[in-house]
Amino acid sequence: MNLPISLSVNGVPHTIELTDPRITLLDLLRERLDLTGTKKGCDRGQCGACTVLVDGRRTNSCLALAISHDGADILTIEGVAHGDSLDPVQAAFIAHDGFQCGYCTPGQIMSAIGLLREGHAGADPERIREGMSGNLCRCGAYAGITEAVLEAQASLSAGKAA
Amino acid sequence: MNQFEYVRPASVAEAVAAAAAPGAAFLAAGTNLVDLMKGGIIRPSRLVDVARLPGLSRIETLPDGGMRIGAFVRNADLAYHPGFAAAYPAIAEALLSGASAQLRNAATVGGNLLQRTRCPYFYDTASACNKREPGAGCDALGGENRLHAILGWSERCIATNPSDFCVPLAAWDAVVEVEGSGGRREIALTDLHCLPGDAPERETVLAANDLIVAVRLPEASRFARHARYLKVRERTSYAFAVVSAAAGLHLEDGHIVEARIALGGVALKPWRAHAAEAALAGAVPGPGASRRAADAAVADARPSGDNAFKIELAQRLVARALARAAAGTPDRMPALPASPFGA
């Protein structure tokens, strides 16, 4: 049984024949489109390593069946930078050591981009920590992650004001 | 995950017909369903994808001042809807205290109502669970059960309902609109979930092809300035409730005209505490009234294992939720929604 779906991934349109309805969005990205920046951590919606933006909203791709996302617009970590120019969130994670081993980092960055787009946290560290609680970091780089998101928030609002 | 047939109906009627097949299940966001399927806990033979059925993602204000929420509104969209959050602040707070931002962006209103228990023995297919396999026994009895039920449990099942959203919905008299083989009908939220009794495998009064299409709330502006949801968790965020409490007060001239109280994390359904509400009618808010209400809320509670502490915790949380409600709904959603700590 072949199930065709259309997806836009990082601005590139794809038509994909799914061979199996069980394929998650995460496995589709990694195994069919070779976009391995999105990580499989727990694969059960508990760690956030698989976070991508679906139609502009951060979501766990491990719990999303690909077949039910026909027509969706997906943004992954591979689509965040503009050429050699890093997204402000990426740059802030580097500046503030927002990672150690790096495995959770693509999910952290996608979640932070989603958080900033949602616009509910502002420059309040407590709201940022709460808003990022769906992304676990086993290395414990949380202090740097919070600093990075704060800086990205500041640079984005400065950019808007300019 | 088991193999299944995937169907995407174009209408509610088609969805109800497609889900009448044996072994069929509705798929909305899948945040609970796909997880359960990955663990082999449920094995539906057909998934009926209903998330994009037309017309079921609206949030409407009704002529009587109540609100009607389409079943496929996402949890985050409801919590941040300005009209909804102003009219039902404790419900918005409960929504934002549940799961993570990623999950709230995906999970639907209807799916939240039908999420399964998080009892670890239900999730572990090597354990005995009457809910997963009727007649198999219950390994939670005598097992690791400090987080299990203190109200309404039976010797067959001591699991709890994990929903935060359902707790204030129960307190605010929500009604669930359901479409099934016999057409449209309405069920009070407090009648939707079943207590375990002798048949814990039956979780709700719905038939397998009954589709929740909307949740309706009656007008409740008299509680809006004094409404809270508090939740004790084992970590600060992104955790299910050990115990939670929703409280709403209608105050006039310093007296309680009417109170609403419901508890979460204590039973296999959201637990409306009518006796606690009655204990507050006409009272002046304060520690004495809160204590009487808190005692009434857990009058029927008994431990199902190593969880006697939850009875006192529920009393204290009811009292604190009432104190916070009396102090007034915060102007802005707290940084840590539903936190019982801090101001």
**So, the CATH homologous superfamily of chain B?**
CO dehydrogenase flavoprotein, C-terminal domain
CATH architecture of chain B: 2-Layer Sandwich
Low-confidence stretches of chain B: none
Q: For the report, how would you describe the main beta sheet of chain B?
A: 5 strands, antiparallel
Give the % helix of chain B: 25-40%
Q: What is the average per-residue confidence, as pLDDT of chain A, rounded to a whole number? A: 96
Mean pLDDT of chain B: 97
Structure explained in plain terms:
- The complex is a heterodimer of chains A (162) and B (343).
- Chain A is an alpha+beta fold and 162 residues long.
- Chain A folds into two domains: 77 residues, Beta-grasp domain (Ubiquitin-like (UB roll), Roll); 74 residues, DNA polymerase, domain 1 (Orthogonal Bundle), CATH 1.10.150.120.
- Helices cover 35% and strands 15% of the residues of chain A.
- Chain A contains five helices and five strands; from the N terminus they run ββαβββαααα.
- Chain A has a five-stranded mixed β-sheet, with helices on one face.
- In chain A, a hairpin with a 2-residue loop joins strand 3 and strand 4.
- The longest helix of chain A has 20 residues.
- Chain A is globular, with a radius of gyration of 16 Å.
- With 343 residues, chain B is of the alpha+beta class.
- Chain B has one domain: 2-Layer Sandwich (Enolase-like, domain 1).
- Helix content of chain B is 27%, strand content 19%.
- Chain B contains 13 helices and twelve strands.
- In chain B, the strands form three sheets. Chain B has a five-stranded antiparallel β-sheet with strand order 4-5-8-6-7.
- The radius of gyration of chain B is 19 Å and the shape is globular.
- The model of chain B has no long low-confidence stretch (mean pLDDT 97).
- Classes of the chains: A alpha+beta (162), B alpha+beta (343).
- Chains A and B meet through strand 4, helix 3 and helix 4 of A and helix 2 and helix 6 of B.
